[in-house]
Amino acid sequence: GDGKEFIVEIQIDETDILKIKNNQKVLLSIESDKDNVYEAYITKITPYMNEKSKTFTAEAAFVKQPAVLYPNVTLEANVVINTKTKALLIPRKFLMQGDSVMLSDGQKIKVKTGLKDYQNVEVLEGLKETDEIIIPKK
Q1: CB-CB contact of 79 with 22 (8 Å)
Q2: CA end-to-end span of the chain, whole Å?
Q3: Where are the domains of the chain?
Q4: Is 101 helix (H, G, I), strand (E, B) or coil?
Q5: Which of 30, 35, 38, 117 has the fewest beta carbons under 10 Å from its own?
């Protein structure tokens, strides 16, 4: 190619490989550009597993190329295997270790989480839509 069209190579764990199909949506976070999430789609899945890492290699193409991208950069890929239209979502930065959140009155409560993406996490139990939560102090 002309160097402007990058193919992303991602490793898919053997436990997830049956959930992955061509043209499936992928959300990419590039280590050197953490402020942005890029959308891509699966273009190829290799039919053999790497015995050492227990992973399959898949390729993905960007929907819209990043303005600047260098070969061999580190990135994190999340293949979208499920979506919901009605869900209670909170930003991931509000979720504390052990799946807890901090209410605005300082009370820490445990929640049951569901689907996650780079920015949000679904709360299945433990939190109401009217509850006010705060970002936990580090």
Answers
A1: no
A2: 45
A3: 7-79, 89-134
A4: strand
A5: 35
Amino acid at position 97, single letter: Q
List the CATH code of the domain at 7-79: 2.40.30.170
State residue 36 phi and psi, 5-degree precision: -120, 150
**Dihedral sign from CA coordinates of 48, 54, 8, 121:** positive
pTM: 0.64
Model confidence band, residue 5 (pLDDT cutoffs 50, 70, 90): confident
- Say how far apart CA 79 and CA 11 lie, in whole Å: 11
- Token pair 């580090």 is found at 138
Residue 5 has, within 13 A of its CA and on its CB side, a CA count of 5
State residue 137's pLDDT score: 82
Report whether pLDDT(2) > 60: no
124 backbone φψ class: left, alpha, beta (φ>0; ψ -120 to 50): alpha
